[in-house]
């Protein structure tokens, strides 16, 4: 019996207690009285009946108010206290019961808080012991994760069902670049924990490679490696190596295959370069063959007929001269076409420009004892460079400046210029001549006792850059300017991935070795499902009146973890103006949205991002209404189940005053950052949802079907948009 039913029952009992004895007594007297006595009773009672009814009604109302107050203080107060107690036990250890209501309830709240304080002390001791026991395991995991993050190759680890359980930074960036140009390339990525590797690579080729590895495992574990070449979505060619992950069986010492490691390399660019070189060589060979035949014939005629006429001899000599000139031009053209190809074979890497400067400063100060400073340095600028030769070149120029011009200080400047970067070495002092700079440029480099067979010009050419000397007359100083290539996303698309500086990965979960490849099943436990938590920002609050989506933010939950690096965050051009009241909430203006992709592009990308997952949102009816109104226009239908944290809060805490996201987060002890942005609200909702899962389990709601059925019974489920 719920609290509302008990309250109504108490009201009925109160009414019976106030009117029942009087009515029964009156009926007994009436039944035993004679006719004359009954007439006398009527004559005596009727004048005072209205007063009695008013007094009875007044007493009933007073009693009702007393019962209602007692009910709120004791029944509802204790129910609210029970909800708060469950919060303390399961979701928010720091939560405390407010001592409200009558003195007895306040004393109970204080006693509960004291017990909670003692419980926290015991839990801290237990947590410390557990942390100490797990530290060695976590250390090994962190070492492996850090090692994977530093590898220059893209590495992906999968279980036997093809579900991704680990990947490094290079894999994330490389596959994100491959996704550009496809629907998944707008704000999302092809790779993610728990996702299927078959969405990236051909399943048939992986299955074949698995079969090869299993066959080779019977012979030798060391030789159990398979290699194959496949094509990604965008037509890029990938070279893949598969190595098995072996684990011991519980019932024997035999080791069995539980997953596999894929090392992926984008070979598109190298194959294109080799093909281009082959074409150039073929063209050179075919063109030279005809010229050599003509020269051979001309030389043969000159040799066989020494007495030929002068005019004919001059004609043959002209043929030889023309063919030699043609071969020379063809050779020059071939070498020019080879130049870029030869440069690309120089081992250039993506490196932060500030790191190059820092390395050069250390060497100059340690070896040459020359102080140096930086000015106007773009610390986020990445260069394509071979760091050792470039740093050595800078030190070489500094040594020459000290030797010839006795400079006292060197300054560095690093600025972007389109697809190039300007790295300047600045000094104050005497001017130098162009002839001197040309000599330095072509000399073999030497710094103290270290020498290099390369010249400064060799290093610059192999970087595909330039260097020059320039004087700032007004400032009475001069500088050498290195013009160097900038690392760009295009490098990632061809297999040369630019690291984003976040080398420590969060994206690994070894528990996924036991993850089974199943579709969304309503009877699966909530803890076993993958979720996409999302939020939308809109031009206004009336989807049926023409308001549009202007931002979609989403984050994935896999194996009970909120993956903050696997996100979808995309602005949308609504093709209409944003309402001022909306801008005051989310801060997005018309200028910020102009030029962004429209909903026709963004919605299919978001659909790919949340494929095979359960959708989660706060007040999901509002967000889903916007998505449903775009089904006819985009052809994208979101048919997966949807869980609403607003409704689930009503299920868990029906006696709480507020079910807004901020209030729920405060109850659960969650700090919210970035509110009223699509991604910020999605992350906050994800944190709230993860805290709700154990609370739902305590109520016996453990499957997706049970959660949906419980949510449908709440009052908030009746709200329509």
UniProtKB/TrEMBL annotation:
Residue ranges annotated for the Exonuclease domain, each copy included: 530-698
Coiled coil regions, renumbered to chain: 123-154
Protein source organism: Candidatus Accumulibacter contiguus
Reaction equation(s) it catalyzes: DNA(n) + a 2'-deoxyribonucleoside 5'-triphosphate = DNA(n+1) + diphosphate
Keyword Transmembrane: yes
Record SUPFAM superfamilies: Ribonuclease H-like
Protein name: DNA-directed DNA polymerase
Keywords from the named record: Coiled coil, Membrane, Transmembrane, Transmembrane helix
Pfam family, one: RNase_T
Bilayer-spanning residue ranges: 51-71
NCBIfam families for the chain: dnaq
Known EC number: 2.7.7.7
């Amino acid at each position: 019996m719920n609290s509302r039913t008990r309250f109504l029952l108490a009201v009925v009992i109160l009414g019976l207690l106030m009117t029942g004895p009087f009515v029964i007594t009156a009926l007994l007297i009436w039944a035993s009285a004679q006719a004359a006595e009954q007439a006398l009773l009527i004559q005596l009672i009727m004048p005072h009946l209205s007063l009695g009814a008013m007094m009875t009604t007044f007493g009933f109302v007073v009693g009702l108010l007393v019962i209602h107050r007692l009910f709120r203080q004791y029944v509802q107060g204790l129910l609210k206290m029970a909800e708060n107690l469950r919060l303390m036990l399961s979701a928010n250890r720091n939560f405390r019961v407010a001592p409200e209501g009558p003195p007895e309830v306040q004393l109970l709240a204080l006693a509960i808080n004291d017990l909670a304080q003692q419980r926290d002390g015991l839990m801290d001791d237990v947590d410390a012991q557990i942390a100490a026991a797990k530290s060695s395991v976590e250390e090994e995991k962190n070492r492996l994760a850090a090692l994977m993050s530093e590898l220059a190759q893209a590495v992906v680890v999968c279980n036997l069902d093809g579900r991704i359980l680990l990947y490094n930074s290079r894999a994330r960036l490389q596959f994100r670049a491959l996704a550009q140009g496809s629907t998944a390339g707008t704000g999302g990525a092809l790779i993610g924990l728990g996702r299927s590797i078959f969405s990236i690579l051909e399943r048939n080729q992986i299955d074949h490679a698995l079969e090869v590895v299993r066959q080779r495992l019977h012979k030798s574990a060391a030789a159990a490696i398979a290699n194959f070449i496949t094509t990604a979505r965008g037509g890029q060619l990938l070279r893949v190596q598969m190595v098995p992950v072996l684990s011991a069986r519980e019932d024997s010492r035999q080791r069995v295959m539980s997953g596999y490691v894929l090392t992926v390399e984008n070979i598109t660019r190298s194959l294109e370069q080799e093909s281009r070189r082959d074409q150039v060589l073929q063209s050179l060979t075919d063109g030279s063959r005809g010229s050599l035949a003509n020269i051979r014939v001309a030389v043969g005629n000159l040799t066989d007929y020494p007495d030929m006429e002068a005019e004919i001899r001059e004609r043959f000599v002209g043929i030889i001269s023309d063919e030699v000139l043609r071969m020379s031009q063809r050779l020059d053209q071939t070498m020019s076409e080879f130049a870029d190809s030869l440069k690309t074979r120089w081992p250039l890497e993506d490196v932060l420009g500030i790191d190059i400067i820092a390395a050069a400063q250390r060497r100059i100060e340690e070896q040459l004892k020359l102080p140096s400073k930086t000015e106007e340095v773009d610390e986020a600028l990445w260069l394509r460079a071979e760091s050792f030769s470039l740093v050595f070149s800078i030190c070489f120029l500094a040594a020459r400046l000290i030797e010839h011009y006795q400079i006292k200080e060197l300054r560095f400047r690093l600025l972007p210029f389109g697809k190039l970067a300007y790295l300047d070495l600045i000094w104050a002092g005497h001017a130098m001549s162009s002839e001197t700079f040309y000599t330095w440029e072509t000399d073999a480099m030497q710094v103290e006792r270290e020498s290099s067979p390369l010249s400064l010009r060799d290093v610059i050419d192999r970087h595909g850059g330039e260097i020059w000397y320039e004087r700032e007359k007004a400032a009475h100083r001069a500088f050498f300017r290195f013009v160097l290539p900038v690392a760009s996303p295009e490098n990632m698309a061809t297999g040369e991935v630019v690291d984003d500086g976040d080398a420590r990965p969060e994206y690994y979960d070894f528990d996924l070795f036991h993850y089974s490849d199943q579709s969304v099943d309503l009877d699966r436990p909530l803890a076993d499902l993958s979720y996409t938590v999302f939020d939308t920002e809109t031009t206004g609050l009336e989807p049926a009146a023409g308001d549009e989506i202007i931002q979609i933010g989403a984050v994935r939950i896999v194996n009970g973890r909120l993956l903050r690096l696997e996100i979808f965050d995309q602005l949308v051009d609504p093709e209409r103006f944003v309402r001022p009241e909306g801008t005051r909430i989310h801060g997005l203006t018309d200028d910020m949205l102009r030029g962004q992709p429209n909903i026709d592009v963004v919605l299919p990308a978001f659909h790919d991002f949340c494929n095979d997952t359960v959708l989660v949102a706060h007040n999901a009816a509002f967000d889903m209404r916007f998505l449903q109104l775009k089904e006819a226009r985009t052809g994208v239908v979101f048919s997966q189940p949807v869980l609403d944290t607003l409704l689930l809060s009503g299920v868990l805490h029906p006696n709480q005053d507020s079910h807004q996201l901020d209030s729920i987060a405060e109850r659960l002890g969650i700090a919210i950052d970035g509110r009223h942005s699509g991604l910020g609200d999605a992350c906050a909702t994800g944190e709230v949802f993860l805290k709700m899962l154990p609370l739902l389990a305590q109520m016996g709601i453990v499957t997706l079907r049970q959660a949906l059925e419980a949510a449908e019974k709440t009052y908030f489920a009746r709200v329509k948009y």
